[in-house]
Amino acid sequence: MRFTIRLGISLLSLFGSSASISSPPPSKRQQQQQVVIMAYNNNNPLPSTLLSYDAQLALDVAQNGDFGHDNVQISDDALRIHWTLDAPSLETAFTVVDHGNLLDPRDMPEPYFLGSDDQGKPKWHRYAASPFTTKPVASVRPAVDPLDNWEAFWEATHRVHYDPDWERSKEEPPVQICCGVARPTGKGSEVVVQGTGAPGGFVTVHDFLTTMHAYLMSRREDILEAMHMDLLRKRLGSEDIGSDTKLIVTPMTLMGVPSITVSTEKEWTRFNRVR
Ligand SMILES: [Zn+2]
Predict the structure, then answer these.
(1) 143 alpha carbon to ligand 1 midpoint, in Å?
(2) Averaged in consecutive runs of 10 residues, what is the pLDDT profile of the chain (275 residues)?
(3) Which of 5, 206, 188 is nearest to 125 (CA)?
């Protein structure tokens, strides 16, 4: 699996450490889901407060199966945000379009930032207060492509150098440096968005954008580095990455998990244009 389609790589990251070649122990996500499923199966009273996204998803899966239409996912309002990752300011990063993942020349983007009120407090598009998810949840921990796939990208690039025949056993300690580039161990995303929406403290669209935009900006260099190492990008003929490369963030629900993908503006335009 030296070359895997992006979805395949993304799915890897959903099930424990992204680059685990041996079968990994259950991830924190899987353990939490197991606890909720056990509580559900034992008919224990469920908590009256909002659940985390992961716990809500585990409940939904227990009730409706993996692909239940009613399973929690990212809301339509949240999917209407067009999101650029070039500057820290929330005022310039977002617009609201018909569908944030589609580039439709007929679209008339609405501003997300609506200026300031009399007290100088920023005003936002009405979708800012919308629930980020189809069922209200207390917190969301999204998967982040490419950060969560960075170590897998490193493996795909360098393993041919130190282990051309793929003969290393799982028991051998992993090679830490190749071609002078350190294995990006533990560089995946670790971020939880806490809800502030009333009532109950659900995660709003604005909660998600505020927390995630600041986090992604703080890791912009890592994101560019990981994208630079992504062989799939090269195979698709994408442009080289530089520190001033314009980036677009795309939220989506992948196998039930809230996920965000970062692409260059050029890639995004190339693959998301409505034809
Ligand atoms: Zn190498």
Answers:
(1) 27
(2) 37 39 57 56 60 96 93 96 95 89 80 96 96 96 96 94 90 93 95 94 97 97 94 87 93 94 91 73
(3) 206
Give distance in angstroms: CA of 181 to centre of ligand 1: 7
Question: Ligand 1 centre from 231 Cα, in Å?
Answer: 13
pLDDT (tens digit per residue) in 180-215 = 999 999 999 999 999 999 989 999 999 999 999 999
Distance from C-alpha of 25 to C-alpha of 20, rounded to nearest angstrom:
10
Convert the pLDDT of each residue in 91-112 to its tens digit: 999 999 987 677 777 878 899 9
Cα of 160 vs centre of ligand 1, distance in Å, is: 7
- C-alpha of residue 158 to centroid of ligand 1, in Å: 4
Is cis: bond before 146, omega within 30 of 0?
Answer: yes
Smallest CA-to-CA distance from 141 within 195, 66, 84 is with 195
Span from the CA of 169 to the centroid of ligand 1 (angstroms): 18
Q: Report the separation in Å between the CA atom of 162 and the middle of ligand 1, taken as the mean of its atom positions.
A: 7
Q: How far is the CA of 226 from the centre of ligand 1 (A)?
A: 15
Q: Give the global pTM.
A: 0.81
Rounded to the nearest angstrom, the distance between the alpha carbon of 209 and the centre of ligand 1 is: 36
Show the tokens assigned to 56. 């809500």
Gap from CA of 220 to ligand 1 centroid (Å) = 23
C-alpha 75, offset from chain centre:
15
